[in-house]
């Protein structure tokens, strides 16, 4: 049974009296412990899709089930790192990091200790007492990622979590993400613009069309793990990448 199941979901928004169709009958799923990526052009509805799965929005049409349950509220049942980092400006870094466990009524002292122990790995050591505006864009993004993972939900939705990072940090964070996913048996839904990254990380990739977003292709990445950077030049890797790039090109034409 898929842990996330989105069935024929459509969503429109009204802006200044005009209706914008963001998603058009989108179906996707993620099975337990799967790493699923979503790629698609800007504005195709990727963030909207994650907002729907997280329960921040409701579909106009179609159904979303978490763990097979279509009717239970979804809010609070998945870990979610939204595209905008959502760090609270009035909280210092460490208090931002422990927000999830705090809201869920968990032991905050334990959460703080765990957060503290992970600060070096995320390049945030020494900034425990900083406010969000005192951090760089990349630091904010790493903080938001760490905060999401500290919620310790089995299902984690990540909306371009690595977008603001330099190449080297991006690689480190990507490896760390894979490690978390494997070690803690998470189910990940990952939005990215980076096709190479999607192929490197994913078990399955959904490719979306421009607005209104539809799923135009579903690709199972049948490459053995662990997958290192060395894979980038391999014919098998390149053929996945080209397939996705071609699909994106064709659906935008
Ligand atoms: N709350 C909202 N109210 C009105 N329109 C919205 C709202 N949220 C999203 N939209 C519209 O829905 C469409 C999809 O937006 P969304 O943010 O999901 O795209 P995206 O694929 O995540 O894009 P990007 O890659 O740039 O992040 C856009 O046209 C956007 O303007
Ligand atoms: Mg987005």
Q: Which short descriptors sum up this protein?
A:
253 residues; globular; alpha/beta; binds adenosine-5'-triphosphate; binds magnesium ion; 34% helix; 2 domains; 3-stranded antiparallel β-sheet; 9 strands; 8 helices; Rossmann fold
Describe this structure in words.
The chain has 253 residues and is of the alpha/beta class. The chain has two domains: 4-78 and 153-252, Rossmann fold (3-Layer(aba) Sandwich), CATH 3.40.50.300; 87-152. 34% of the residues lie in helices and 24% in strands. The protein has eight helices and nine strands. The chain has helices at 46-54, 93-97, 99-103, 108-118, 137-150, 167-183, 195-201, 235-252; strands at 4-15, 18-30, 35-39, 61-66, 79-81, 155-159, 187-191, 204-208, 215-220. Helix 7 crosses helix 8 (235-252). The longest helix has 18 residues, at 235-252. The protein starts with a strand and ends with a helix. Bound molecules: adenosine-5'-triphosphate and magnesium ion. Magnesium ion is lined by residues 46-47, 83, 159.
């Amino acid at each position: 049974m898929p842990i996330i199941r989105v069935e024929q979901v459509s969503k429109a928004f009204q802006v200044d009296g005009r209706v914008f169709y963001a998603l058009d009958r989108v179906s996707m799923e993620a099975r337990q412990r799967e790493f699923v990526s979503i790629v698609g052009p800007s504005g195709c509805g990727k963030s909207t899709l994650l907002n729907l799965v997280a329960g921040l929005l409701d579909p106009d049409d179609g159904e979303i089930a978490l763990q097979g349950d279509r009717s239970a509220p979804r809010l609070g049942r998945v870990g979610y790192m939204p595209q905008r980092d959502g760090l609270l400006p009035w909280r210092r870094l460490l208090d931002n990091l422990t927000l999830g466990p705090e809201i869920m009524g968990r032991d905050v002292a334990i959460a703080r200790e765990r957060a503290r122990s992970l600060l070096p790995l995320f390049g945030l050591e020494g900034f425990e007492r900083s406010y969000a505006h005192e951090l760089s864009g990349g630091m904010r993004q790493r903080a938001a990622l760490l905060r999401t993972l500290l919620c310790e939900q089995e299902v984690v939705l990540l909306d371009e979590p690595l977008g603001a990072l330099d190449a080297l940090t991006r690689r480190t964070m990507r490896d760390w993400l894979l490690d978390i996913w494997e070690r803690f048996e998470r189910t990940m839904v990952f939005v990215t613009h980076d096709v190479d990254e999607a192929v490197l990380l994913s078990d399955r990739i959904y490719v979306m069309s421009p607005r209104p977003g539809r799923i135009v292709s579903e690709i199972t990445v049948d490459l053995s793990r662990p997958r290192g950077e060395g894979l980038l030049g391999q014919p098998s890797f390149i053929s996945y990448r080209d397939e996705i790039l071609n699909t994106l090109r064709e659906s935008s034409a």
